[in-house]
Amino acid sequence: MGRTGGKRDGYSSCMLRFTALYTILAALLMVRSTVYAQCDQQSLQLGASAPFSTSGFTCQGASGFPQQAWSRRNGTDTLELVFIAPVTQGNWVGLGFSSTGKMAGSVALIALMNASSTSPTPYWWRLDDHSIPPSSDAQYSSFSSNLNQSQYIDGTVYISVVVNITAILPSTPDSFLFAYGPASASGSTPLQHTQETSQVANFAPAGTHLSTSDTKRGVHGILNLLGWGVFLPIGAIIARYCKVWDPTWFYLHISFQVLGFILIIAGLVTGLTLQDSYKGVSGLDSHRALAIIVFILAILQMLAIVLRPKKDAKLRRYWNWYHHWVGRFALVLAAVNLFVGIHLAKENGWNVGYGIILGLEIASILALETISCIRGRNKEHSSPTMSPNLAPNYDNDV
After folding, report:
1. Which is more confidently placed, 66 or 277?
2. What's the predicted TM-score (pTM) here?
């Protein structure tokens, strides 16, 4: 079906499409830079006086928190750790070890800097029932050493410590707690935190097999990456730019969308089985909420195909607009949520892989949109009627 009614100015139409595409691209890049700004290899190199080699360390941080926890598990019990965090006079920063993802019952490494100090002092503290009684180094000599290895460079503290991970708590910790807050007037005690969050930490020794939850997490990620990141975007690209292959484009579009929908259903199911393993993890609620929203949009898209009006119906034009733009909105939200999920899983390699996939998809869209705009403008100048096979049409039927 060709375009009906008054003819839209070709240049304005092209600029509108390009503005929308570049806005989406900029938003995705902003989300990516916000989520992954916590861990910086250069920061670890500044803490070079650690009494052990820091090669092979992995980093864990939290969105919105400047703290970094670089660690490596050696053998069964030993965790070599470098805690990096900015701290100013009259304040404290802390890294907690928790078996529940909560503050109560955890043990924390805290760097406190009173108002008269030129550098912070590291301590071990036990957090019971949300109180913060001080604990002497001797009390924790059974699981900690090298606590005096700390530096303070340009407002940032670097603490190097070796921890006996199996002795630190009654049950093996599985979470890092990041927090900061003010010190007491005397500067000897940390007051209640002003902000805190928890992150799932992988304390498994190097070379051990993945746990069941780790395996499920990988399957969950692969299913959603293939569904939301590959098949559904390709199906949308086919629907917009491949209508010259009528009717092949339609069957290709439906095939990609159905397969993608099956994959995201499987991804959602595996995600639900992981909820108990990641309770209390910061950012998980946002990831879950976005997943529910995009899944509802996907269901609406599938229902739209079943309930679409006939081609000659007056509502068909509005149905086309709805189907196109709801689909695009769902894909954008899904891309954001994929980055969030990769961040929560702390799979930096996946971040690179999906970034490449997304970059190729966006580059393809920009190239195809450019070609379509040029052909559409040339056709408008040469003929009063534009062929639907030469330019994308917001009113084309799906």
Report:
1. 66
2. 0.54
